[in-house]
Amino acid sequence: MTAKTTASGAAYDAQGDRADSERRDAAMQAFERDFARTAAIHMESCVRCGMCATACQFYVTTGDPKYTPINKLKPFEQAYHRHVGPFAPIYRLLGLKSNVSVEMLEEWESLIYDGCTLCGRCTLACPMGIDISELIKEARHGMYKAGLVPDRLELMDRTTKAWGSPASPSEDFADIIRDAGEEHGVPMNVDLPKADYVVTVAPAELTEHTKALSDVAKILNKIGANWTYSTAGFEASNIGYINGDLPLQEKMTRKIIDNAIAIGAHTLILPECGHAYGAARWEAARWYGKKLPLRIIHMTEFLAEVVTSGRIKLKKMGETTCFHDPCQLARRGGVIEAPRAVLKGLGLDLTEFEDHGELAWCCGGGGGVVSNVRADPLRFKAFAIKRKQVEEARTQHFVTACGQCRITLTLGAKHDKWDQKVESLLELVADHLED
Fold it and tell me: Which terminus of the chain, N or C, has fewer Cβ atoms within 10 Å?
């Protein structure tokens, strides 16, 4: 791995020792495979109105036009017009669209990995209905094939392939679960051969947020559920989904779903992780040609079900809160009312941000940005938007339902020397169960 800088000063990482022409060809082949009908329609639809710019936190906080979302698609778009679009032969003949160069791809790396969280706010703003966020995610497929991704994300990719998780080897998983149970005094189930519910985790829950492991167990035990964690399929965050590593994305998605089916579960519970929801709940259909024989739900949906049905009773907190909507959960997944039902069950008076629900501003760390240390300066600038929202809300609590968002927001507060705690919806529920 070699860290480099482009002629303009943009940082990029390159994996392997392939020639530039080989990198470019690998990217182009992947781009061309992704130019299906929907992508083609989107490529032909952009009218360069600029409305997506003011929807992007990186553009808004820096004022730099290079962070305009549609600009992040420039090499992807150029490859489309030159090679597969309806006028591609004319473009090539007249030289109207040049070939995408490896230098262009290197320059582009920081834009689509450091300067994009795949939050989808630009998609919502586009008057032509272009799913810009999805196109950027597809563009990452080619970048991964070319060996042009941030080194930190590529390391997580390799670790996942070796360990089954970017956070911990699979052989340590059962011990981590048992240790969390002992630390918090909660009976834990792990590797039961049959269960109705299978619970999955995100990397942070195996390291700094281990209380979440025992909190969901506490709730499942409270309702008398037949449930388990499973070493054979526990990692849901899916670094392949973020990096553009499609084979790994499929492998990780199939692993947790196939394992839950083998256990006989009727419900697979995803952790407080936004990208886990995108990968397993919505993109699972890419790998399965039939309806799945089980439900896949986010932790927030599970909490809403047990709270609103009365299966658990909560102590009323009688305080005020604001709530950060995780992008992949709310904007990309439509889970907006569920967390609010849980907050109501906790007796919390919610003060909504001006932009909330599907319009919510991203935490600034999604899409792998928080794991990509190279992007820290840009991410800390973007944090200003969320800090301003929270300060204007003036509530006693600040809650979210995504562990990655929680980490990003906590790091932003620490960087700013801002004394603001970011709380987990799951942990609040577990801490306020009635006896």
Answer: C
The model carries a pTM of 0.93
Partner residues linked to 270 by β-bridges: 298
Residue 184 in tokens: 């918090």
CA distance 428 to 423: 7
- CB 233, CB 173: distance < 8 Å: no
How far is it, in rounded angstroms, from Cα 78 to Cα 88?
A: 10
> How confident is the prediction along the chain (435 residues), in pLDDT tens digits per residue?
557 888 888 889 999 999 999 998 898 888 877 766 667 777 778 888 889 999 999 999 999 999 999 889 888 777 777 777 777 777 777 776 778 888 988 989 999 999 999 999 999 999 999 899 998 998 899 999 999 999 999 999 999 999 999 999 999 999 999 999 999 999 999 999 999 999 999 999 999 899 999 999 999 999 999 999 999 999 999 999 999 999 999 999 999 999 999 999 999 999 999 999 999 998 888 888 888 889 999 999 999 999 999 999 999 999 999 999 999 999 999 999 999 999 999 999 999 999 999 999 999 999 999 999 999 999 999 999 999 999 999 999 999 999 999 999 999 999 999 999 999 999 999 999 998
CA distance 275 to 87: 36
Query: What is the dihedral angle through the alpha carbons of 13, 16, 19, 20, rounded to the nearest 10 degrees?
Result: -20
User: Are 347 and 317 within 8 A, CB to CB?
Assistant: yes
- Residue 8, classed as helix, strand or coil, is coil
Round to whole Å and give the CA distance between 324 and 336. 11
Q: Determine the Cα–Cα distance for residues 97 and 83; give it in Å rounded to an integer.
A: 9
Say how far residue 79 (Cα) sits from the centre of its chain.
27
Q: Which two tokens stand for residue 313?
A: 């009773």
